[in-house]
Amino acid sequence: MKKYIIPIIICGLIVTASSCKKFLDLKPLDSYTENTFYVDEKGLQGGLVSCYDALQTDSLYGNNFLTLGEIRGDNVTDNDPGSGAGVRNSIEVFSETSANNILATSWQGHYKAIYRSNIILDRAPGISMNETTKNQIIGQAKFIRALSYFNLTRLWGNVPLVLTVQKTEQARENVRATSEQVYQQIINDLTDAASKLPPTWADAQRSRATSYAASALLAKVYLYQKKYDLVVSTLQPLVTSIYAGTVLSVVPQTTTFPNGLKTSKDVIFAVLYLNGGVKESVNPDNRYRNNNNTNTITISQSLFEASDNRKALVALTGTGVRPGKFNSPASPATEISGDFPILRCADVLLMYAEALNEVAYGNTEAFKALNAVRTNAAASIKTPAMLTSQADFRTAVYLERRLELALEADRWFDIVRTNQMATIFPGIPAFRSIYPVPQAEIDNVNNKTGWQNTGY
């Protein structure tokens, strides 16, 4: 019996050891990985939420993008060179270096949004689910990726164009694509997104990107490329809808910006926050808050007509408050304007007016679009007798964009794209129209040739 018992015991130990190994290798059921999470519709929807969440962070629209897009311009001044080792003030005074932490976190924040979007776009095709719902998820991921790349190329010019989920060793081989290549990918993403997304969502899902949002952002991309005929054709359906006032419409900016931001017909796409809530990121503290005079709103009140309802919303009224545009009550029950608008109907009308004027001066639709924004603001209308040339109209539109979109992180980019930098900031070298690539990103790649922008 002994010669049979010993082999049986040995085999039993082997089987037991093998079983224990398999048991110990099991991942905890509540510890998901990319391979176990993105396997069904629920996983895709959860991943999509994380894409939107990336936009809310301080690295992007919660804080830093406001510095890079607005404080850099001439609407806001940061008066505290000592705060945060001067990283914000150095951007204000054009002395930032590649070691600036705001630049580093903003770069990383945008690529985090892109990485999360890429996971969705990589996994969605292989998941069995309702095709319409799947396409809507893909469309939203492409919109967020396109928005992120639009910001990246406006900030840094040439940037790595990453369209797949990469491992660390792959990322170290990245090179910078040209702005033209990045813009083409943005156009591809937004064109596809516009075809897949619905024009509206149910109220509970209003934070999601729509076909209107994809088209509005696509038109803005064309505007930056000076493809004015494409701006016009892309925006025509939106402008028609805005004039109809059923789904989209301009809304006066009175006590809040604009009235009921979460439900406003003026807002085409916004990054959502709760004022004091917990379901979304809390409204960021640095919404140009005036703490001991560290931020000053420098857009002159004299630029507004006396009747202009936008005038009071871009002024600081005391220490510790935000300008009226973003100084809504911090109450979850009445949270209405803690969000940060990215695309609005007023912006669409002004892009439309600008593009029509660049195609040919004197278009009545250009005056109609410009005056729709001014009438909404309770400002006087502009006539051909007042704006007698293409140059006059162009100047009027540029000013109107400054007044209408003040503090919405568009001003610096408008200054650069309209070639006003040398006039508004005389003596500042042209290379500072884009930012230095963060040194940490250069350190992380194997081939560092051509990574830093000229002048830095």
UniProtKB/TrEMBL annotation:
It comes from the Bacteria. Pfam families: SusD-like_3, SusD_RagB. Belongs to the SusD family. Residues 22-223 form the SusD-like N-terminal domain. Its main location: membrane. Residues 290-419 form the RagB/SusD domain. Gene3D superfamilies: 1.25.40.390. This is RagB/SusD family nutrient uptake outer membrane protein. It is found in: Cell outer membrane. The keyword tRNA processing does not apply.
